[in-house]
Amino acid sequence: MTDSITIRRPFDSHVHLRQGAMLRAVTPITAQKFFSAIVMPNTDPPIDTTEAAAAYKEEIMAAVPEGSTFEPLMTFYLTKNLSPAEIAKGFSGEASAKVYAVKSYPYGATTNSQWGYRSILEAKDVLREMERVGMPLMLHGEVHLNDHDEEEDPYEGERLFVEDTLPRLLDAFPRLKISLEHMSTAIAADFIEKNGAEGKLVATITPTHLLYDRRQAFSGGYRTLIHMKPLVKRREDRERVRALAQRGLPFVSAGSDSAPHPESKKFSSCVTFGVFCSPAALEMYTGVFDELGALDKLENFLSINGPRFYGIQPSEERITLIKKDWQVTEPVITSEGVKVWPIGHVQHGLGNEVIRWQVKR
Ligand code: DOR
Ligand code: ZN
């Protein structure tokens, strides 16, 4: 039985660090375990200029603990203000922050998505420029509104995207680098396994979609800590996504999608979408790969595939995880006294959840 594993320091291909007091509370958690991360731009206001990205990077860097070499990698939000000219400017890194990718949110689908296009196919000029300069597109791959502006069934949004929008996008922009974020369905896993290609079409998986399905979401009541977009799906979907991770393909990587929300919004009659997982993401991924008998694939998934896609070197530092039970017992509390509850919390998660691996100190 393996009870210890040493890997290169991991990379989070997808994290939300927010702003202000929330940012100052959650950034050190990611910086402690990951050497670098792709930071989501769905702040308010959104990050859609090179100047805004540089200022946002500065805010994050000020919250990185002293002595840490953590580097946040910035992204643009594909808003209607994001111009083709800004693409080349951000990607060439002329300002103090290079912008590594563009993130697309379907209008209305999730947190701060009110600045997104209804469909990614409406943003042709920007996509053409991204294809020309080689800047990757990160997709929130769900159809939220149909052509008549009616909401689609949220359990079907990813399927509709993968069956309809994604093939059209790939046809229209054959050289565009694309990452399908937070894959949640068997249909997406099938599509990526068949069409994925290193440096061209890749995908990320969250710990949430590897560990939970809708049985847990509705077990004994509605479990708001695992409420996110894309929603957790059927058991068969989760098993198919796990099987994809288990294969160890070079175009599949860890993107935690850690998305903190204040207690008041998470425990509310209109619960926000987003799972705060950075306190346990790395350990949960390790537990899943252990269960799958795939610990030999963990380092590529966590530490190598993500950096390669974004053109950066994997870390030379190492981190060791040991098989030892622990529980998430505390919330994170911001300097303003706001509580943020992490996934797996003993009381507010599914109840008495145990995490089987931990980082060796
Ligand atoms: O659940 C989600 N939360 N999905 C997203 O796409 C955005 C994120 C957030 O920012 O809270
Ligand atoms: Zn996200």
Number of strands: 13
Structural class designation: alpha/beta
- What is the terminal-to-terminal distance? 21 Å
Reading the helices and strands in chain order gives: EEHEHEHEHEHEHEHHHEHHHEEEE
How many domain regions? 1
Assign the CATH architecture: Alpha-Beta Barrel
Low-confidence stretches: none
Largest sheet geometry? 8 strands, parallel
Strand content: 15-25%
The ligands found in this model are: (4S)-2,6-dioxohexahydropyrimidine-4-carboxylic acid, zinc ion
* Estimated radius of gyration: 19 Å
Order of strands across the widest beta sheet? 2-3-4-5-6-7-8-9
CATH topology: TIM Barrel
- Overall 3D shape: globular
Q: Output the CATH homologous superfamily.
A: Metal-dependent hydrolases
CATH first level: Alpha Beta
| SS field, number of helical segments | 12
Overall pLDDT metric: 97
Quick structural gist:
The chain has one domain (4-359): Metal-dependent hydrolases (TIM Barrel), CATH 3.20.20.
Please give a structural write-up:
The structure is a single chain. This protein has 361 residues and is α/β, with parallel strands linked by helices. The chain has a single domain, classed as Alpha-Beta Barrel (TIM Barrel), CATH 3.20.20.140. It has helices at 20-33, 50-63, 84-92, 124-133, 157-172, 186-195, 207-211, 214-217, 235-246, 263-266, 281-291, 298-309; strands at residues 4-8, 11-15, 36-39, 71-77, 99-104, 137-139, 178-180, 201-205, 252-254, 318-326, 332-333, 339-340, 355-359. The strands form three sheets. It has an eight-stranded parallel sheet. Strands 1-10-13 form a three-stranded antiparallel sheet, with helices on one face. A two-stranded antiparallel ribbon has the order 11-12. Bound molecules: (4S)-2,6-dioxohexahydropyrimidine-4-carboxylic acid and zinc ion. Residues 16, 42, 110-111, 140, 228-229, 259, 273-274 line the site of (4S)-2,6-dioxohexahydropyrimidine-4-carboxylic acid (DOR). Zinc ion binds next to loops.
